[in-house]
Amino acid sequence: MSAVDPVKLMKQQVGKAAADRVQSGSIVGLGTGSTTAFAIQFLGDRIKSGALTDIKGIPTSFQASVLAKQYGIPLTTLDEVDRIHIGIDGADEVDPQKNLIKGGGAAHTREKVVDSLAEQFIVVVDQSKIVDKLGSTFPVPVEVLPMAIAPVVKALEKLGGKPELRMGIKKDGPVITDQGNMVLDVTFSDIPNPPELEKTINNIPGVLENGIFVGMTDIVLIGEIKDGNPTVREM
Ligand SMILES: O=C[C@H](O)[C@H](O)[C@H](O)COP(=O)(O)O
């Protein structure tokens, strides 16, 4: 018998905990990534069982819309609704102020639009994502218009960053986002002021959006393994 992957167990547990917080009649922001995928799956299960009615999802990526269709979650768009009651999304890093780095799946531009509109924004992560300082384990993803890559690289280097063009896996050449742009992963030796860096990067012409999410998160649900059992802690 193959051993159960503990990280997968934590992600499953935390995804279920987030899906359980959704109430009937809600417009739900559907995040991107392997952790949110479980939340989407459990949301679909609740809809199928009849426990949850009148739900509409706003996807943050192609991946999220594919999963939502697969699990039977009706979708809508920001043109059709004037509010998002609850948003559920993953993160690559979470600091003690609940600021985030996102974009490990290159979806941070649409995620920031949807997550920022959610009246309650819930972040779902396993314990490995909790850090003391943003940037300590993960670079800052920056979505860039392809024609502006060279000047944006120079501008990011001037800010002290080390930008690296994100390359595809099972695809030659760079990762192309859902919007047709490229992603620079920028390593900073220190991010003393995340809100300032977020604004400064977004001010560079050619930058669409970066993966620093400041002051947006209401609740972080953290999947942990305690005494061999997966549990969920709230921050
Ligand atoms: O672009 C992708 C997103 O920001 C994800 O939410 C983030 O990378 C976390 O993904 P995962 O839950 O797969 O670690």
Domain module count: 2
Level of helix content? Answer: 25-40%
The computed structural class is alpha/beta
The CATH architecture classification of the largest domain is 3-Layer(aba) Sandwich
- The tally of beta strands, per DSSP, is 13
What is the H/E string? HEHEHEEEHEEHEEHEEEE
Mean pLDDT: 96
Treating each run of at least 4 consecutive H or I residues as one helix, how many helices?
Answer: 6
Largest sheet geometry: 6 strands, mixed
Strand order of the largest sheet: 2-1-3-6-12-13
Bound molecules: ribose-5-phosphate
The end-to-end span amounts to 35 Å
Strand content: 25-35%
**What Rg, in angstroms, do the CA atoms define?**
18 Å
Question: Remind me, CATH topology of the largest domain?
Answer: Rossmann fold
Describe the structure concisely for a colleague.
This protein is of the alpha/beta class and 235 residues long. It has helices at residues 6-19, 34-49, 62-70, 108-117, 149-158, 194-202, and strands at residues 27-30, 56-59, 84-89, 93-94, 100-101, 118-126, 140-144, 162-165, 182-187, 207-210, 212-213, 219-226, 229-234.
What do you see in this structure?
With 235 residues, the protein is of the alpha/beta class. The chain folds into two domains: 6-130 and 215-234, Rossmann fold (3-Layer(aba) Sandwich); 140-208, 2-Layer Sandwich (Alpha-Beta Plaits), CATH 3.30.70. It has helices at residues 6-19, 34-49, 62-70, 108-117, 149-158, 194-202, and strands at 27-30, 56-59, 84-89, 93-94, 100-101, 118-126, 140-144, 162-165, 182-187, 207-210, 212-213, 219-226, 229-234. The strands form three sheets. The protein has a six-stranded mixed beta sheet with strand order 2-1-3-6-12-13. β4 (93-94) and β5 form a beta hairpin. The longest helix is centred in the N-terminal third of the chain and has 16 residues, at 34-49. It is globular. The two termini are 35 Å apart. Bound molecules: ribose-5-phosphate (R5P). Ribose-5-phosphate binds next to α2 and α4. The site of ribose-5-phosphate has 18 residues, from α2 and α4.
